[in-house]
Amino acid sequence: MDNNNYNDRNREVDKNRTNDWNIGELLIRLLVTAIVVGITAFLTPGFSIDSLWSLILAAIVIAVLDYLIQRFTGVNATPFGRGITGFIVSAIILYATRFIVPGFEISVWGAIIGALVIGIVDMIIPGRAM
Questions:
Q1: CA distances from 97 to 61, 87, 111 (A)
Q2: Which residues pair with 106 in a beta bridge?
Q3: How many CA atoms, within 13 angstroms, populate the side-chain half-sphere of residue 14?
Q4: For 15, which DSSP code?
Q5: How far is Cα 72 from Cα 113, in angstroms, rounded to an integer?
Q6: 7 CB-contact burial (10 Å; exposed 0-12 / middle 13-18 / buried 19+)
Q7: What are the CA-CA distances from residue 28 to residues 11, 57, 60, 74 (Å)?
Q8: This prediction's pTM
Q9: By C-alpha distance, which of 86, 93, 106 is closest to 59?
Q10: What is the rounded CA–CA span in Å between residue 8 and residue 14?
Q11: Helices (H), 74-130
Q12: CB atoms within 10 A of CB 97
């Protein structure tokens, strides 16, 4: 198989995947994000969420920020999806959520460790958290 043909086909699939958003996919993404962020907050020092509503709002904010970054820059914010770039973007999204969601407290180190934990949990739980 020609490697260039294979890469072109993968780019086309990725382009279609980022352009095709439906409500079902968005709801599943929000649910998975809420579960993964909840697990991450439990396991990560310097990361806490005060209530279920803060968790739900944080999941919405994270999903929206991920969508906007992916739409405008093309960078996938999955911590292990795009290497160091995805890891850094994931940590930035977590830290930025702190300023938007009341009851969502995270330190810089908590965001870095949280991005790592999200990447590990994301590999275990089917679906896409970020």
A1: 7, 16, 10
A2: 47
A3: 13
A4: H
A5: 26
A6: exposed
A7: 24, 15, 11, 21
A8: 0.71
A9: 93
A10: 10
A11: 83-97, 108-124
A12: 21
Give the tokens for residue 61. 């904010």
pLDDT of 22-52, one tens digit each?
A: 777 778 778 888 888 888 888 888 888 999 9
- Work out the angle at residue 130's Cα, subtended by the Cα atoms of residues 32 and 17, and round it to the nearest 5 degrees: 100
Q: Write the pLDDT tens digit of every residue in 14-23.
A: 554 445 557 7
Residue 26 in contact with residue 62, Cβ under 8 Å? no
* Token pair of 127 as six digits: 């679906």
Residue 52 buriedness (CB in 10 A; 0-12 / 13-18 / 19+) = exposed
State the average pLDDT over residues 81-103: 85
pLDDT above 50 (res 13): no
- The conformation of residue 104, written as its DSSP 8-state character, comes to E
Distances (CA, A) of 49 to 2, 41, 56, 73: 49, 7, 10, 29
